[in-house]
Amino acid sequence: LDPQLWHACAGGMVQMPPVRSRVYYFPQGHAEHAHAGGAADLAAGARPLPPLVLCSVTGVRFLADPETDEVFAKIRLVPLAPGEVEFREPDEFGLGGDPADAREKLSSFAKTLTQSDANNGGGFSVPRYCAETIFPKLDYRADPPVQTVLAKDVHGEVWKFRHIYRGTPRRHLLTTGWSTFVNQKKLIAGDSIVFLRTEHGELCVGIRRAKRVSCGGMECMSGWNAPGYG
Amino acid sequence: LDPQLWHACAGGMVQMPPVRSRVYYFPQGHAEHAHAGGAADLAAGARPLPPLVLCSVTGVRFLADPETDEVFAKIRLVPLAPGEVEFREPDEFGLGGDPADAREKLSSFAKTLTQSDANNGGGFSVPRYCAETIFPKLDYRADPPVQTVLAKDVHGEVWKFRHIYRGTPRRHLLTTGWSTFVNQKKLIAGDSIVFLRTEHGELCVGIRRAKRVSCGGMECMSGWNAPGYG
DNA sequence: TTGTCGGCCGATCGCCGACAA
DNA sequence: TTGTCGGCGATCGGCCGACAA
């Protein structure tokens, strides 16, 4: 999985430590996160674990769930002996000033799906900025300007969309191919879609699912479906 | 799962030993059937198993696959000590002369789906015998005679069908509700459907899938899809 | 600039009798 | 008696511009 696409899907809040950098590992926090409330397993151990362990990052793998397309990472940590402890600024590893960071911001775009986007009745409203900076150049001399857009998802599968610039006032839309994508990926209003143009000029598409909240057996998005009073 | 429905789905060739009856267990045959060709596991054991073991049936559970509706059974066997060996006719347990057998034959009906039945373009041609002996009585004074038929599947789920008697010449058909059933159960031409009327007068429906044969990646039924020359 | 809506057109679904095996 | 077909009406998917936020 392309790290650029992975980061675009994960969002700007997610930063990954580079290989050979040093991080603190929090066993209890990990245990609580892994199986909520099951941290007793570790506490019951004969030798109590320290609250934090200084480790060296020896490997990072960028992965995506085959079912949901949700991205995650596997990070390999090796604990350091107390004598190896030495403080180094993370910036030495380019954590903050990653040059890929600025480039990524320029060539990726995320949009939260509206009801109209997710309704099976129609297409996808492409924000102008996304169409002009991420999508392939459209020939505006045609009337209406139309092109076929190919985008690769996190699994390498290619999706085909009809990209048209029409309506009054003019706007960019994805029509044919869009509803298939929505249905296959089981997207609903509130989920986000990410478009990314790699340095090779290749277009990629990722998704970022909204947190679901169960409503009496039905799955729905908090805030949606709630009639506004007043 | 109702044993009557189970037997109707399994077909007349399948007979189950009753509880407390005695049967021979063939370990090698079981192993070969369980994982084809993997019988070496048993042969490699320190103590070679006897070719057949006389057992007592201590339990039989009639089950159905939640995905495919295909029926199977779990039979609990307890090996008998050599001293316990005594010959008894299986008929003493009612294996052959099961009174439920004759009743079942009267009130269940199986039909192999034709292309027209499985095509999503239409309904299901109900053989007259099935309609008249299994289905609820139709009021022939109406024109055309129509009723709603409810049938419970092996999971207890209820399916609703529109049963109509129409056309020239007249015939029984299931229309509305049929294609939903076909799609949900993923039925294709060659599969069979079983209708059963229980002693309580309740209508049940089961399926019996045809053996699939793979045709270059496509799944199809042997004999179907083959154009007839001459 | 873009979210939502109603209109509308074409494709598909599915009910029908005709006809023949 | 019942399998298959063509016809056709209803429904649905999905593309469109209007309009307003």
Task: Walk me through what this model shows.
Chains A, B: Belongs to the ARF family. By secondary structure, chain A is an alpha+beta fold. Chain A has seven helices and twelve strands. The first copy, chain A, has helices at about 5-10, 25-35, 40-45, 100-105, 115-120, 130-135, 180-185, and strands spanning about 20-25, 55-65, 70-80, 110, 125, 145-150, 160-165, 170-175, 190-195, 205-210, 215, 220. In chain A, the strands form four sheets. Chain A has a four-stranded antiparallel beta sheet with strand order 5-8-7-6. In chain A, strands 1-2-3 form a three-stranded antiparallel beta sheet. Chain A has a three-stranded antiparallel beta sheet with strand order 4-9-10. In chain A, strand 6 (about 145-150) and strand 7 form a beta hairpin. The longest helix of chain A has 9 residues, at about 100-105. The chains hardly touch. Chain A binds a DNA duplex (21 and 21 nucleotides) through helix 5 and strand 8.
Topology:
The structure is a homodimer of 230-residue chains.
Chain A: H1 3-10, E1 22-25, H2 27-34, H3 40-43, E2 53-64, E3 71-79, H4 99-107, E4 108-112, H5 115-118, E5 124-126, H6 128-133, E6 146-152, E7 158-166, E8 171-174, H7 178-185, E9 192-197, E10 203-208, E11 213-215, E12 218-220
Antiparallel strand pairs in A: 1-2, 2-3, 4-9, 5-8, 6-7, 7-8, 9-10, 11-12
The structure holds a DNA duplex (21 and 21 nucleotides).
